[in-house]
Amino acid sequence: ILKEADNLHTRINECSIDKLMMEEGVSSPTQNASKVHGLFQLSENRISCLLAEAQLLTEGNDEEDIGSPDVPGRSSDRVHLNQLLGQTLANILVEHAHLQRACNSLIRSLKDSEEEVVAL
């Protein structure tokens, strides 16, 4: 579960509008408005998918632990601890994705404000 959580964390970080702009060679949000708008949409779509994956992370972990409580050497306390750990990691990833989404929304608002000022 830790490896999966680390992978999701990395992928959420890759959804930042700054990273997407660097990948596409856009140096300024006002440089190419239609391309930047597409990048915002791409970021939003990726974050939505990753949120679903983060929620599935705990569900998969719960099913795995529920299906194997009789494994030798595996106590019910350990199963419960693994479930709590999985839930905590998923909650952190979900919060991180929401924060990434909020940052992108703020950057989009600033970009739109700059475009309005330039249009005046």
Shape, per Cα inertia axes: elongated
Strand content: under 5%
Strand count, sense and barrel status of the largest sheet are:
none
What are the low-pLDDT stretches, counting only 5+ consecutive residues below 50? Answer: none
Rounded radius of gyration (Å): 19 Å
Topology as H/E string? HHHH
Number of helices: 4
- Oligomer state equals single chain
Total E-strand runs: 0
Distance between the termini: 52 Å
> What level of helicity do the residues show?
over 70%
Structural class: mainly alpha
- Mean pLDDT reading: 82
Descriptive overview:
It is elongated, with a radius of gyration of 19 Å. The chain starts with a helix and ends with a helix. It is an all-alpha fold and 120 residues long. It has 4 helices and no strands.
Task: Itemize the secondary structure elements and their pairings.
Layout: H1 2-13, H2 17-24, H3 33-67, H4 76-119
Helix pairs in contact: 1-3, 1-4, 3-4
Task: Summarize the structure in short.
The chain is mainly α.
Keywords:
single chain, 120 residues
